[in-house]
Each structure stands twice: as C-alpha cells, then as structure tokens.
C-alpha cells in the first residue's frame, strides 16, 4: 500500500529466495523483541506487568537520523493456554498516554484479558514515547484556563519549547506514522494477528491501522467514531449544538424537569444575552476566590464537557438556572468535574501536531455548519494555532476508508456531542458487510463502559469467525434509559 514502507518490502517482484531471507529476519527480530520485555510496575496496577521499548526513526525516510523510543506495556493473559492474538487498547485525545489510562480500563476488560494479552502502546508524542508536553493548565487561574486568547498564547510558548527538543520536528507525529510504530510492536511480540479496541480519537487510529495493515487485523472495536475526514474541531460546533438541543427538548417533555425549570430554553438564551459579565467566584479546584470575566465562549466550553455524559448533563438545567441568577459555582463546578482524571491528560504538543496536519488543511472544504449557539470560535482558535504549527503533508489516501477485511464493531451514543452516530454511519457504509454499527440512543461519548456492553464485547472478540462476530446481539443497548433531571436535595432553599 502506498505510504507503507513495510508493504514496499514485500512487493511482488521479489524472488522467492529474498522472501525466505526476509521471513527469517522477521522471525529473528520478533524473537529478540519478545525477549526484550521486562517485568515492571506501573502506578495504579497492583500486579506486575511487562514493559518493552522499540527504537524508531523519527522520520522513516531517514533511518539513520534521529530516533525516538516507543514504549509499550503488556498485561499478560490469566489463562495458561491463552489465545495468540492480543488486544491492543488505543488511547484517545489525540494526546492521551495509553499506559497512563490502562489502570482505569483493566477492570472493564477483565474478561477479555482472561484469555488474551492486553497491549498498551504510548503513541509517539505521548506518555513515555518522545512526549510533547505543555504546561499543566490545572495550576492556572480560571481566566487562564477558560480564556481562549490566553490558551493560544500559552500554546505559542509551548511550541517554542517543543522545537528545542532532540525530537522537536513536529511534522513526524501523525497518526499515519504512529501506526507503523504500532505494527512494529506487533511484530516484536510475534503476533500474526491482533485485535484493536479504540475510543474517540482511538477510532481514527484503528481505521488508519486497518488501512495500512489489513491482513494483521482479526477484530476491531470503534467506540465514538472520529474518522479521518471528520475535520476536528469544526464538527464539534454542530454536533455540540445538536446535543444541547436534545437536552432542552428532553426537559420540555419530562414533567419533573418542566416543573423545576419551566422556561429552561428562555433562561439559556437569557444567560447568553447577559454575557460578558465580571463575577467573583470560587475556583472549583483550588477553592480560591477569583475575579473573572465570564464570556459566551467560556460558558459554551463549560457546558460541552457535561454533555459528554448524560448523568452529568441531567444537572445542567439546575446549573443554568443558577447562573442566570448570578450564582456561577454550580456551572463552574460541573464544567470542571467533566474534565478527565489527571492520568488521561493530553500531551497538547502531540494533539496539535495531529490536528494541524490531518484536520486543519481540510477546514475550508468541510460541509459542517457551525451550531447556532456554539458558533465557530473554537475552530477559529485552532486555526490561529495551526497557522504557526509545523505540520506534515498528509497523503490523499489517508482520508479513504477501504472495505474491512475483518469484523469491525462500531459503537455510538445517540446523545454524544462530539462523535454522534452520523460519523459512524458513513464509516460503516465504507467498511461494508463485515461492519456492524450499534447505536445506544440514550448514551453519550463512549458506550463500552455500560454494563450490557461489557458482556457483549467479549462475545464479539471471542467469536470464531466474522459472521458470528457481526451476529452478536447488542439488543440491551435499546433498553438503557435517559437519566432523569437532577433534583437538588435542598430544593427550594436559596443558595
């Protein structure tokens, strides 16, 4: 396949003798890599696991140039007679460390881990693999965390620092190259075929691996599909607007919400019309009293996080009503509570290296329209950053999704504000008959953690063939209700 240096080594004109030599070399390399795994301890994991590292060229076209270390972790299967095809768990973001989020996922994948190794690879630019880290925003003031102008200035400073790193050529931190690293890990582990599980940006990662290395895949699970043609973050505006509209409509139809918030839509519009306004509030994390000017963009940023999770979204009507009366603590606390745990923090240098190379050049050709309330402010902020960010030129084939050569399960939450079902629908059509799309109407961003999904997912992975995998019943998804509106324990008591 074009753009794949591994495929080029197997081109059809090679004679049989060279093929035999290449196979021998591959076996030798694989065995050496497997032997390089060492017992290790990872914070948050009680048991001993295995850790490995591969040296990879920063630029594959210059194998004698700068190299980076790609780190990976293997959680061995519990069964003595384990299956030969491990499960690679892909991180989101872009910018998450797979190894750092592993402790949060192991219980969820315990049944799968019983018979298969779980593999977590820190994608180049994240975790321990040539990290592209920026200052931790959690130590900043509210204004620094919420104001897009200040965030852009901080990213400019970070860019200057990242360029000074030994591996500071940021053009080589794309999804395309990262999947060549991932396949090198597969080869080092001696696995003929692997399974992939990815959520959010991890689904783009899985689709790119499928494009470059289709014969190495056995099963793929894509949760919250973010395909390469999605154009982040432009699509967030319309998708976020749709999720907000669904919340307002649900309140109008739910008797309890109507009783508590009889004019929620009007109150929301009233809140937006009142901005900007300068207020004194408690910082949700530090508790310090700060003076901050709340803008429209800040408020939209605060509500987008809770929209990811229907249980959190059910408290938004209360927080909106509180903010209209000048009490901002509920909305600020809700917005900050939706932030991922520290282990899931993004390496923002890698985040922008991916988005600026893969999405930014396609903004002008996107058919997505900004949402009425969300507008295009986030997209414009990314554009200003990407204008200065070094970026790779992506090949046209990166954006093409070929038919799947193995079973693929696509999962969508009907209330997801960032990767709703519309994205998975067109991917499913491109993948063809081996793809199955399951929509959980009342779920948000990410559905694998739902109890019934935990049962069905191992059945999909364990199925003997593709037909059986696609036939796995996910009917439980339709029985998941939308959480009712939040009712304060001290309803009627003034804050």
* Major sheet size, sense and barrel closure: 9 strands, mixed
Give the helix tally.
20
Beta content comes to: 5-15%
Q: What is the 3D shape?
A: globular
User: Could you name the ranges where pLDDT drops below 50 across 5 or more consecutive residues?
Assistant: 1-33
| Estimated radius of gyration | 23 Å
> Which class do the helix and strand fractions yield?
alpha/beta
Q: How many β-strand runs?
A: 11
Distance between the termini: 63 Å
- Helical proportion, percent range: 40-55%
Q: pLDDT average, as an integer?
A: 89
Description:
It is a single chain. With 495 residues, this protein is of the alpha/beta class. The protein has 20 helices and eleven strands. The strands form two sheets. The protein has a nine-stranded mixed beta sheet with strand order 1-2-3-5-4-6-7-10-11, with helices on both faces. It has a two-stranded antiparallel sheet with strand order 8-9. Helix 2 crosses helix 7 (175-189) and helix 11 packs across helix 14 (316-324). The longest helix has 20 residues, at 16-35.
């Amino acid at each position: 396949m074009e753009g794949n240096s591994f495929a080029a080594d197997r081109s059809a004109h090679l004679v049989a003798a060279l093929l035999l030599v290449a196979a021998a070399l591959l076996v030798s390399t694989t065995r050496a890599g497997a032997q390089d795994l060492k017992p290790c301890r990872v914070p948050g994991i009680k048991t001993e696991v295995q850790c490995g590292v591969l040296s990879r060229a920063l630029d594959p076209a210059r194998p004698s140039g700068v190299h980076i270390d790609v780190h990976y972790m293997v959680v061995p299967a519990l069964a003595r007679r384990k299956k030969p095809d491990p499960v690679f768990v892909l991180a989101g973001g872009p910018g998450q460390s797979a190894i750092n989020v592993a402790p949060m996922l192991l219980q969820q994948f315990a049944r799968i881990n019983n018979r298969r190794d779980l593999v977590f690879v820190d994608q180049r630019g994240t975790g321990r693999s040539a990290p592209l880290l920026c200052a931790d925003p959690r130590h900043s003031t509210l204004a620094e965390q919420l104001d897009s102008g200040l965030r852009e200035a901080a990213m400019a400073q970070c860019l200057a620092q990242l360029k000074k790193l030994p591996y500071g050529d940021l053009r080589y931190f794309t999804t395309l190259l990262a999947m060549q690293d991932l396949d090198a890990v597969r080869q080092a582990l001696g696995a003929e075929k692997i399974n992939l599980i990815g959520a959010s940006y991890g689904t783009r990662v899985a689709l790119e691996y499928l494009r470059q290395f289709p014969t190495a895949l056995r099963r793929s699970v894509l949760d919250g599909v973010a395909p390469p043609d999605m154009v982040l973050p432009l699509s967030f505006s319309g998708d976020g607007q749709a999720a907000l509209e669904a919340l307002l409509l649900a309140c109008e139809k739910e008797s309890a919400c109507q009783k508590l918030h009889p004019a929620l839509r009007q109150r929301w519009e009233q809140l937006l019309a009142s901005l900007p306004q300068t207020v004194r509030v408690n910082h949700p994390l530090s508790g310090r009293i700060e003076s901050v000017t709340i803008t429209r963009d800040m408020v939209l940023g605060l509500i987008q996080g809770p929209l990811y999770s229907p249980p959190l979204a059910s408290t938004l009507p209360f927080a909106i009503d509180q903010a209209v009366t000048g009490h901002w603590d509920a909305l600020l606390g809700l917005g900050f509570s939706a932030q991922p745990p520290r282990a899931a923090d993004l390496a923002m240098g890698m985040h922008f290296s991916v988005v600026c190379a893969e999405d930014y050049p396609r903004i002008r050709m996107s058919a997505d329209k900004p949402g009425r309330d969300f507008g295009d402010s986030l997209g414009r902020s990314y554009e200003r950053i990407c204008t200065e960010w070094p970026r790779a030129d992506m090949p046209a084939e990166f954006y093409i999704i070929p038919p799947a050569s193995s079973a693929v399960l696509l999962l969508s939450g009907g209330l997801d504000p960032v990767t709703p079902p519309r994205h998975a629908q067109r991917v499913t059509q491109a993948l063809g008959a081996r793809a199955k799309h399951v929509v959980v109407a009342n779920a948000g961003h990410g559905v694998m953690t739902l109890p019934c999904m935990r049962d069905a997912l191992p059945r999909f992975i364990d199925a003997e063939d593709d037909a059986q995998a696609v036939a796995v019943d996910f009917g439980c998804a339709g029985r998941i209700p939308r959480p009712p509106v939040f009712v304060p324990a001290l309803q009627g008591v003034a804050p």
